[in-house]
Specification:
Among the domains are: 32 residues, no CATH class; 48 residues, no CATH class. The protein is mostly helical and 117 residues long. The protein is elongated and about 95 Å long.
């Protein structure tokens, strides 16, 4: 039922909006295909995929938005600008990767006997 209701709202809005647009100076036609919500739906589906929360709080939404902005930012690509041979390879950074970095090997402690000899 909800889908039918939203469809009705969309059709009603379209029928109200198009005559207004056609009255504007210089507007001769209107392409309904330009009213596409796919980019918006795609953006929010990325949010859902990153956070996994159906109804995020504002803080959760903003954190995910920042991660997405940084992930597609040119700052990340600029990290290897001064290195030769790396400019042709595309750099991929997973901002959600929580893999621990490798640790330095532990140096065995000297026993008391080794210290005094």
């Amino acid at each position: 039922y909800v889908t039918v209701q939203y469809f009705f709202y969309s059709v009603h809005s379209f029928c109200e909006m198009v005559p207004e647009l056609l009255r504007m100076e210089g507007v001769k036609f209107f392409l309904s295909e330009k009213l596409n919500q796919d980019p918006i739906e795609e953006h929010f589906s990325k949010h859902w995929a990153k956070g996994g929360v159906e109804n995020p709080q504002l803080e959760q939404y903003m954190m995910t938005e920042r991660k997405m902005i940084v992930a597609k930012s040119k700052m990340i690509v600029a990290m290897n600008v001064n290195f030769r041979g790396r400019t042709k390879r595309k750099i991929v950074i997973d901002i959600d990767d929580k893999t621990l970095l490798p640790k330095c090997p532990k140096v065995p402690k000297k026993s008391n006997e080794q210290k005094h000899s």
